[in-house]
Amino acid sequence: MSLKQLLDVPAPAKLNLFLHVVGRRADGYHLLQSVFTLIDWCDTLHFERRTDGRISREDLDDPSLLPADDLVVRAAKSLQVHTGCPLGAHIGLKKTIPTQAGLGGGSSDAASTLLALNRLWQLGLDRSTLASIGLSLGADVPFFLAGQSAWVEGIGEQLTPIELPSQRYLVVKPPTGVSTPDIFRHPDLQRNSERAIIEDFAAISQNQTAEAPCEAAREVAQYGRNDLQAIASRLCPEIALGLQWLQSRGLQARMTGSGSAIFAPVTQDVDCRTLPDGWLSRHCSNLRVHPLFEWR
Known about the structure:
By secondary structure, this protein is α+β, with helices and mostly antiparallel strands. It has helices spanning 71-83, 105-120, 127-135, 141-146, 180-185, 198-205, 215-222, 229-235, 237-247; strands at residues 5-24, 30-50, 55-59, 88-94, 150-154, 158-161, 168-173, 254-255, 262-266, 280-285. The strands form two sheets. Strands 1, 2, 3, 4, 5 and 6 form a six-stranded mixed sheet that branches.
């Protein structure tokens, strides 16, 4: 029996626990090393099957925010083109992950769209095929399709699953964003970081004992750095302000992705009432696997 709709489909955000720029390809793309972890800050999507082949999109909170051709629409159309599927879909999106944050919200929405429409249209594509479609939409999309914490290399498409200790994070986001292309184009960006070794990180992340259950999480938070953070802070001074705010509370703070969100591991909730007006804050937990991990 054909499905007619899929409701309340989650699309979780991610954090970059570190991010090193280790080189640059001839085509201009930067080569990275990072560890991505999923967190329980999610957008929500609804899908209704259409028989006329059209892809329509609705913002469930504010129709004025609806872009003409966002990653959700592009993901749906790419899946149609790849498979020749004659069906369409009406897609509703409830957006809670902020944009221009380095949290991967748009890429996660695209990945959940591919997973949902693969099921709604009964296409039967495997994850690797969906990942190849997703990579054409954005370098982070394959990570969300893989569905678990990963050591990430290349431009974001080379993924090695990795186990991480359970951890709570405080994520704060200033009202302004920062342009990722502007950061990567900046002449002062460091592009030759020494390559990290996955075995070294894995040894740290697994160093959790009954006597010191938080030790692994603390050492993971101190591993490496975010090479984009210095440039992003110059382009968006509020990033530096957010880092100072978290550090003044004794927290190990770092920017995620290309910003402008900043995060810190915490053992208990932090009072965020003194954040400047317009800032977002959220206490999150990392996820062992994506909520749609069992969708095949």
